[in-house]
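INTERNAL AUDIT FORM
Audit reference: QA-55
Scope: verify that the stored structure record matches its stored sequence.
Auditor: D.O.
Record contents follow.
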Amino acid sequence: MINHLVRVHRSSENFPQSEHLAQKVAEVAADSVAVSADVAEMIINRIIDNAAVSAASVTRRPVTSARRQAQAHPATPGSTVFGIEGAYSPEWAAWANGVAVRELDFHDTFLAAEYSHPGDNIPALVAVGQHVGAGGHDLIRGLATAYEIQVDLVRGMCLHEHKIDHVAHLGPSVAAGLGTMLGLDTETIYQAVGQALHLTTATRQSRKGLISSWKAYAPAHAGKMAVEAVDRAMRGEGAPAPIWEGEDGVIAWLLGGPNVEYTIPLPGPGEEKRGILDTYTKEHSAEYQSQAPIDLARRMREQITDIDDIESIVLHTSHHTHHVIGTGSGDPQKFDPTASRETLDHSVMYIFAVALQDGEWDHEKSYATERANRPDTIALWKKISTVEDPEWTRRYHSTDPDEKAFGAKAVITMRDGEVITDELAVADAHPFGARPFGREQYVTKFRTMADGVIDPAEQERFLGEVETLETIAPGGLQALNTLVVPQVLDEAPQTGKGIF
């Protein structure tokens, strides 16, 4: 890997395009290095994972709204929209499928200086690949790039510190991945990356306070903007430049300012793109920092005779967990039993309480209105708080995979004064966890989420196609769509009429 130092440059400086970060990203995307077998296998795992969470979310209102928007934009040859027949404009298919993937906060994650869900790259690349007649080999190459670029930006450039949403790294990664898949030249990819970044910077209010359905739409919007940016760049249109380093650019006014320097690691010429192997998926439908606490709560409940006798629970954890999904956020909504699912998903206090009581976590039951309003749950919920522990913060940011951790230490004090303490560094499903996810677990997750939603024969057809992704011929990527049982779609809510 080559570490690139990135800072603001005044317009009067001699700062050639060859030194722009967008140019470095474009050069990585244009490098035709082969994809290794383990990377290709993980790409297949994540396509299966995305199909699983899309099946689980297919009748939710935000997903239904996005699907109906896409249906208003038919196209030839077009792209598929999850669950249904037909061919639709690729940017709108990317939009609809992106919302389906993101709605339940249930797919893969990578955490470093910034946060990310790199599986958000997949819908846009699949949609464009279908429309242009790409094959499985092309898609694998494109996704290897998209994951690599997003992971590398996340390693070196913090957005949330400046209240910029993490999808600002997603727009460039989708553009770069599309560039690889389509075999575009470096200059075209450079312009597309710049446009995509320029159009996908937004504030983190989407994940603060009363969190709405836009949390699911934000990455879909970034994917859609990137598709459109690539289309314009292919037609010869340019982008603001230098987009990251300009004196009125992203770093100068949205991030650290003119005196800050970032270090972005990127593969050198001929170096494999292996970033996806550092990412991890979720066993539970909740914010990633809740994964280990859920497993910890399930383990600790065996040590507690009567949960009603708990006096208090303090979760000692990282800065991110404390300030984003813990009491350090200062969000009263995180203790509100009438709050939205998206808000409860970002309350580790609620999540730990339910997991401790139930000994499990379900993507529907655990968020049900009646579940959140149970008096004993509310009582326990209010007894839980978080504190930042510098050691957990250090481990969160560690670059050593043996040290890097996203967990917590729970200190449970009983009414009689007994103190029960336990800790868990990584979730059970993490590559270093008690039960790491492999192909078998991804397939099981898909079959579980698809049960009653996708016909068993259709499930097997999809799995057979995706597991031989490399051999899917050009023009055959439509096989990656899965059709939902019509009666299930009939249960989707009415969403009102929009413009389209």
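Auditor finding: record pair retrieved intact. The mean pLDDT is 96.
Action required: none
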